[in-house]
């Protein structure tokens, strides 16, 4: 249902323009957007095909060197096409896939977003959270709460692939997102 507004007059236009110059919005000009009659989600249904992700990770394994700080991670983020380029799989979560090769390490760090890892393929990698080593294998779920120091490594002879999900878009919206690299682990 459209809300009715009084007919526009020169005085009303002046009032609206005076408000706009001061970054003030007359509510009657936005009420239909502020209170729509049905949900209008920006997030669109989308399927990321495993075959595509796996191919990209394989190609990246040959091209992306994570040693000596060249690239922090060999990972791909899944951006929802409805979010117009904003960093998110949904409005509040970013998901992605990561591949860690034998002998690689993602150095200790911490961040305000919460994280989870769901192990897809491979055995022998680990996540170390606050000094506790957690070995992972397919089907495992590792939770890393906000601001806990953690790192990832792969001491095995096979590659390990996992899906990451973090609440980065939500934490960014709250303007409390930050990251700290730790050099002394």
Write up this protein.
This protein has a 5-stranded antiparallel β-sheet with strand order 1-2-9-4-7. The protein folds into 2 domains: 9-40, no CATH class; 50-181, Jelly Rolls, CATH 2.60.120.10. It is an alpha+beta fold. The mean pLDDT is 93. The protein has 4 helices and 10 strands, in the order H-H-H-E-E-E-E-E-E-E-E-E-H-E. A hairpin with a 2-residue loop joins strand 5 and strand 6.
The CATH class of the largest domain is Mainly Beta
Q: Label the overall shape.
A: elongated
Q: Give Rg in angstroms.
A: 23 Å
The pLDDT mean sits at: 93
What series of H and E elements makes up the topology? HHHEEEEEEEEEHE
Instruction: Note the total helix count.
Output: 4
Structural class: alpha+beta
The total beta strand count reads 10
Distance between the termini: 60 Å
Q: Which percent band covers the strand fraction?
A: 25-35%
What fraction, in percent, of the residue positions are helical? 10-25%
Please name the fourth-level CATH homologous superfamily of the largest domain. Jelly Rolls
Low confidence ranges? none
Q: What's the short version?
A:
The chain has 185 residues and is an alpha+beta fold. Helices cover 19% and strands 29% of the residues.
Task: From the structure above, extract its key features.
alpha+beta, 2 domains, 185 residues, five-stranded antiparallel beta sheet
